[in-house]
Design goal:
The chain is of the alpha/beta class and 249 residues long. 28% of the residues lie in helices and 17% in strands. It has a single domain, classed as 3-Layer(aba) Sandwich (Rossmann fold). Helix 1 packs across helix 2 and helix 2 packs parallel to helix 3. The structure holds 6-phosphogluconic acid.
Length: 249
C-alpha cells in the first residue's frame, strides 16, 4: 500500500480567518499561474463555507490584485437545477463573486445543471477536454467536506468513486433534497496542481477527525480519496472544526 502523503492542516481562529486565508491563497496562486501560463484555472466548491471567501475576493481589499480576465472559473460539482435556482453552486458564486468582479462570460465555465444529468456530465467533460486539450489540470481546486465525508458530490459508496476515465459524471443521491448532481471525479480532482479544503464549524469536528486521523476508508469517506499528484491537499480549518484533531491541532 503506497504511503499516503501527510495532509497540510492549517488551524485558524474562525470562519472569517479561514475565508481570509482562502482568498489570500487564491490571490497568490492566481498571480503565479498568470505569470507562468497567462491563465489561472480554478474550480470552485459549492455549499455555504466558501461564500465569505468569494465575497472577500470581490471586495475592495482585493481590488487591483488579481487580473480577472486571466482567471477561468470552473466548478467541482453542481446540483442538477437551473442556474438561477437558489441551490445552484454557480448561482451562489455569481452573486458573491462573478457579478461583483464583472467576470466575462468566456471566463466562466459552469456545469449545466439544467440538462438531463448524464447529458450535463457529458457536456462538462467535453468542455474540459476542449479547454485543457485533454484531461483537466486545474491550478487550484477548492473543496468542502460534508458531515458524511463527501467532497464535491463524491458521496460515500457511490458509483462516481469508481470513475477512472471521465472528468465529470452524474451522481444520484436519493437522500439528498436535490438527488441528482454533477461532480468532477477523482481523476480530474487529483490532477490538480493544488487542492484547498475549507472546513469550519463544530458540526464538522467529528468527520474531520475521521477523515484526517481515522482509518483509511475512501469508500466511506470520499474526501480521503483526494490525493493530488503534485502534493497533498491543504486543509484550512477553524478551531471549532479542529476540536477533535489529535495530531494536527
Ligand atoms: C455542494 C458542495 C459540497 C459541500 C459540502 C460542504 O454542492 O454542496 O460541493 O461538497 O462542499 O457539502 O458544504 P458546506 O460548506 O455548506 O458545509
Amino acid at each position: 500500500m503506497p504511503s499516503v502523503a501527510q495532509p497540510h492542516v492549517v488551524v485558524l481562529d474562525g470562519p472569517d480567518e479561514v475565508a481570509a486565508r482562502a482568498a489570500h491563497e487564491f490571490e497568490v496562486r492566481a498571480r503565479a499561474a498568470i505569470a507562468q501560463r497567462n491563465c489561472f484555472a480554478v474550480a470552485l466548491s459549492g455549499g455555504k463555507t466558501p461564500t465569505r471567501s468569494f465575497e472577500l475576493l470581490a471586495s475592495p481589499r482585493f481590488a487591483g490584485k488579481i487580473e480577472w480576465p486571466r482567471v477561468h472559473f470552473f466548478w467541482g460539482d453542481e446540483r442538477c437545477v437551473p442556474p438561477d435556482d437558489p441551490a445552484s453552486n454557480y448561482g451562489q458564486a455569481r452573486t458573491s463573486l462573478l457579478a461583483p468582479i464583472h467576470a466575462q462570460d468566456k471566463s466562466v465555465h459552469r456545469m449545466r445543471g439544467e440538462l438531463e444529468p448524464h447529458e450535463g456530465a457529458r457536456d462538462y467533460t467535453g468542455l474540459l477536454s476542449r479547454f485543457f486539450g485533454g484531461g483537466p489540470i486545474f491550478d487550484l481546486v477548492y473543496l468542502g467536506l460534508g458531515p458524511d465525508g463527501h467532497t464535491a458530490s463524491l458521496f460515500p459508496h457511490s458509483q462516481s468513486l469508481e470513475e477512472a476515465v471521465s472528468a465529470c459524471v452524474a451522481t444520484h443521491v436519493p437522500a439528498n433534497a436535490i438527488p441528482w448532481r454533477l461532480t468532477l471525479t477523482y481523476p480530474a480532482l487529483n490532477a490538480a496542481r493544488a487542492v484547498l479544503f475549507l472546513v469550519t464549524g463544530a458540526d464538522k469536528s467529528d468527520v474531520l477527525h475521521r477523515v484526517l486521523e481515522g482509518p483509511r476508508d475512501p469508500a466511506s469517506l470520499p474526501a480521503q480519496g483526494i490525493a493530488p499528484a503534485e502534493g497533498p491537499p491543504t486543509w484550512l480549518v477553524d478551531r471549532a472544526a479542529a476540536a477533535r484533531l489529535q495530531a494536527h491541532a
